[in-house]
Amino acid sequence: MQHVRESFGRQKAMTLIGASLSALEAGRAEVSLPYRPEITQQKGYVHGGIIGMIADNACGYAAYSLMPASASLVTVEYKINILAPARGSLVAKGEVIKAGRTLTVTRAEVYADDGTHVASMQQTLMMLANTPDTPE
Amino acid sequence: MQHVRESFGRQKAMTLIGASLSALEAGRAEVSLPYRPEITQQKGYVHGGIIGMIADNACGYAAYSLMPASASLVTVEYKINILAPARGSLVAKGEVIKAGRTLTVTRAEVYADDGTHVASMQQTLMMLANTPDTPE
Amino acid sequence: MQHVRESFGRQKAMTLIGASLSALEAGRAEVSLPYRPEITQQKGYVHGGIIGMIADNACGYAAYSLMPASASLVTVEYKINILAPARGSLVAKGEVIKAGRTLTVTRAEVYADDGTHVASMQQTLMMLANTPDTPE
Amino acid sequence: MQHVRESFGRQKAMTLIGASLSALEAGRAEVSLPYRPEITQQKGYVHGGIIGMIADNACGYAAYSLMPASASLVTVEYKINILAPARGSLVAKGEVIKAGRTLTVTRAEVYADDGTHVASMQQTLMMLANTPDTPE
């Protein structure tokens, strides 16, 4: 799983919002995001796009955990429903639904620390075999 | 359009990533995002979740531009396809497809400053009549 | 649950493709579709749009099972991933993720009779209170 | 474009619902569906899943029009917003947004014959090079 942790570690955008990879196993990944005023929208809730960011990453690294370190991964598309206003710290739990040769389909659930189910995502990723997962 | 600009101005998450509302007319909004290393993913491209954030906002404020200042707006869901790696500064252009009494459907296109079509979003929003668009 | 069964019974499109409501409980519904050459696409698999039809209905009636008979329901949007070619008879299993006052979010999984996981859907519906669920 | 017309012609599901390929050019396809009571849902409108079927096909054949006859095409996923109740005959207009080497992204708009904008779809397809587009 070292390639997953290293890839996450290179994501400066995760550092910017303060998110970390809090759990990882084959086909599953969890991204945690402590509450900070800097990540909120106009009403003081966590921004829907920020929720999408951590769900996208939880899905992507769940998928990457099943791939060889020699491969790279790109997000093809994702769809997210915001189910409730996001107050407080969040955790996004991603899992693989179908790992195909080229495409992988994943889902994530996002929860607030009071247990509220905040969002649900369904995502498609494409594996790029023998492609470095680092800057060109 | 003052209520749209004020609402965008209250989004601390936009300040965090460095995005601004660069154009606005009835049913259309544009969000611009200068390139910075802080918003990148593991390969040095702009993070897909960050692309989602500005597209989500371009859509949302396109919708809000057609609503009264007494109303508030929530994102129900969005779906985004990432069409190409995002290098450089970005602009997300949102527009309203259908403005209903309760629900509004929007789309956004995201372009890089070299003209690359980076992403396409389709989104659903719900208007909350007579609801403050400010923290409780 | 009588209002759910009656509503499904009025769907002539379900009769056309040969689908039936095979299971129903609060928050869950199952739609079954026997294989017939008439529902196939160019390669002889069940058409992706037909898979979408039964998943859409499994989701919709899962949602309707939690609503009063005086209400009507409209599909706002759905997103479906086709995970594998669909051979043989199918069953779509829908369930409610979040039942809100106005909006309900649901999911469905579609399986073939050999156990293959054929598709995954995520859907949004809107309740119309005190609205007949019958032709005008 | 002969391979596109032949592929559509093999789709028995299109015959079942009464749909035809009414226009075709490079990167664009149109599917027409005359109104019939057999394709309706519980309130007498055209079924949302049927709308999805013709939009899925308009998108898919728009994509296939840009591919060689030696290739086959699979739907990866689609997302559709139903914008208005569908009364009367329908036409789905599909077009390619991005034609990649492996993946193609498309959109479709569905209109009723009174001009109502009924639905909007965004879809992802995958090309299978050197694969017959016929039953095994």
First CA to last CA of chain A: what distance?
A: 22 Å
Mean pLDDT of chain A: 96
What assembly state would you assign to the polypeptide chains in this entry? homotetramer
In terms of DSSP E residues, the strand content of chain A is 35-45%
Q: Structural class given helices, strands, pairing of chain A?
A: alpha+beta
User: Would you list the SSEs of chain A in sequence order as H and E?
Assistant: HHEEHEEEE
Number of strands of chain A: 6
What spatial form of chain A do the alpha-carbon principal axes imply?
globular
Strand order of the largest sheet of chain A: 1-2-4-5-6-3
Rg measurement of chain A, Å: 14 Å
Low-confidence stretches of chain A: none
Give a short account of the largest sheet of chain A: 6 strands, antiparallel
Instruction: Report the total helices of chain A.
Output: 3
Structural key phrases:
homotetramer; 136 residues; alpha+beta; six-stranded antiparallel β-sheet; 3 helices; 6 strands
How does this model look, in words?
Four copies of one chain form a homotetramer. Chain A is α+β, with helices and mostly antiparallel strands and 136 residues long. In chain A, 23% of the residues lie in helices and 40% in strands. Chain A contains three helices and six strands, in the order H-H-E-E-H-E-E-E-E. In chain A, strand 1 and strand 2 (28-33) form a beta hairpin. Chains A and B meet through helix 2, helix 3 and strand 3 of A and helix 2, helix 3 and strand 3 of B. Strand 3 of chain A pairs antiparallel with strand 3 (72-82) of chain B, so a sheet runs across the interface.
